Amino acid sequence: EIVLTQSPGTLSLSPGEGATLSCRASQSVGRNYLAWYQQKPGQPPRLLMYGASSRANGIPDRFSGSASGTDFTLTISRLEPEDFAVYYCQHYANSPWTFGQGTNVEFK
Amino acid sequence: ELQLVESGGGLVQPGGSLRLSCAASGFTFSTYWMAWVRQAPGKGLEWVANIRQDGGETYSLDSVKGRFTISRDNAKNSLFLQMSSLRAEDTALYYCARVWSYGAGDYGMDVWGLGTTVTVSS
What we know:
The complex is a heterodimer of chains A (108) and B (122). Chain A is mainly β and 108 residues long. Chain A has strands spanning 4-7, 10-13, 19-25, 34-39, 46-50, 54-55, 63-68, 71-76, 86-91, 98-99, 103-107. Chain A has no helices and eleven strands. Helix content of chain B is 0%, strand content 57%. Chain B is built from no helices and eleven strands. In chain B, the strands form two sheets. In chain B, strands 2, 4, 5, 6, 9, 10 and 11 form a seven-stranded mixed β-sheet that branches. In chain B, strands 1-3-8-7 form a four-stranded antiparallel β-sheet, with no helix packed on it. In chain B, a hairpin with a 2-residue loop joins β9 and β10.
């Protein structure tokens, strides 16, 4: 099973600031078979990125993703009020699909 | 409008059974892989199971193998999760999700329902 470790657990930021979220995989996830999701309280997750760096349909370009080996990064260039949420990475390289434990981006 | 609506959750005693359903609308259900994902209260997301378009291929979490069965009825645009031998640790909000294939092995769960709550307690 591939274990995904996200850091930090919590990011305290203000609107307009940039956010950098990390996700480290315990082993290769193939051809960057990694997705990112955003979840707000009381809502289901929302797909942000797939293939580590491709934005899903309708996702604004302030969201970007990158990969370096087994290290993955989600960057939010300038936080909007609606971006404060929990973010999860998830791999789909093989079964079982697993999620990271999440990073909470909260208001400072 | 793309929509997934889960139902069938409830309170069940340890060792009991439940059958979750997910009704799909607004898209051609039979052409998509589908998945169940759960979230324990106050916790993160956990993938539970996937099923291929024709139901001929399934994958599931080790901890639910032999207890949970994912299935689908394409004629009724419905996804199911039959759960038996339920344990306290199965208590969670269960989401169904559409799995979109972007090609070249890339996938994303792009449409989600609001979930149905399963509580396993005596």
